[in-house]
Give the backbone structure.
Amino acid sequence: MQEASAAAAAAAADDKREVRRAVEEKPVVVVVGRRGCCMAHVARRLLLGQGANPTVLEVSDDADPAALVDVALQARRRKDGDKADDDGGGAAGARHAAAFPAVFIGGRLVGGLDRLMAMHIAGELVPVLKQAGALWL
């Protein structure tokens, strides 16, 4: 029983480390989803179709979306020098609405697949990708 608990804690720590590193090192587009998640696949395909090359992190099945989003937002704040600005709905709102896949563009939390699709339909996705440096044209 304790071995399973220790393994789960180690997996959660690894997931947090991966998300923090991805947002710090590859802040253009990061999609965080569970292994084999069809919605993360759809988010990736949508971004590829727009010309972006997203980094996709697959986390363990028992990963906590809110905890991973908090880690990513903290990494971004640390990189920005703790500047207070909009985190795509704010950290408190992100904590309550966190779900997989979580999409980050330019180090900012965009939201899930529903928000990504809404931005695409409204014509807001390409300008955000350009501003983040994910598109060169």
